[in-house]
Amino acid sequence: MLTFKTGDLIARAHPNISDPLQMGLVVDDDRDTFLVKWFWYNKEFYIEKEEDIIKEWNKSFLLDTVLLCRKDLNPFLCLVKSNYTDGQVRQNSKTP
């Protein structure tokens, strides 16, 4: 099981194809839970072309901030990019 940490970019993958359904950023984490702010969803998969009300529902429900429990982790969540290397926060290479 992956341990998602604050700053990680994660995706919810489709179980049968490799395309992601949602992408989000872990905005907070602790030992038992982590908070994800979803910022993108696959508009072709989620009936985006039907009606305006469906588009608004998708924005409300699919781009929400959700609290996920580590023990009930969805097997279709995957790490896209981590902000950490060997337990240390990745530093910006530019110097001020």
Alpha-carbon distance between the two ends: 37 Å
For the CA atoms, what is the radius of gyration? 15 Å
Tell how many strands the DSSP assignment holds. 7
Please tell me what the overall shape is.
elongated
Report the major sheet: 5 strands, antiparallel
Number of helices: 1
- The percent range for strand residues is 35-45%
Q: How helix-rich are the residues, as a percent range?
A: 10-25%
Count of all domains: 1
The pLDDT mean sits at 82
Please provide the ordered H/E string of secondary-structure elements.
EEEHEEEE
Order the strands across the largest sheet as they lie in space: 4-3-2-1-5
Q: What oligomeric state best describes the polypeptide chains here?
A: single chain
Low-confidence stretches: none
Q: Indicate the structural class.
A: mainly beta
Task: Give a summary of the structure in a few sentences.
This protein is mainly beta and 96 residues long. The chain is built from one helix and seven strands. The chain starts with 8 loop residues before the first strand and ends in a 7-residue tail after the last strand.
Report on this model:
With 96 residues, the chain is mainly β. It has one domain (9-82). It contains 1 helix and 7 strands, in the order βββαββββ. It has one helix spanning 52-62, and strands at residues 9-13, 20-29, 33-41, 65-69, 77-81, 84-85, 88-89. The strands form 2 sheets. A 5-stranded antiparallel beta sheet has the order 4-3-2-1-5, with no helix packed on it. The protein is elongated. The N and C termini lie far apart (37 Å).
Give keywords.
96 residues; mainly beta; 5-stranded antiparallel beta sheet; two-stranded antiparallel ribbon; 7 strands
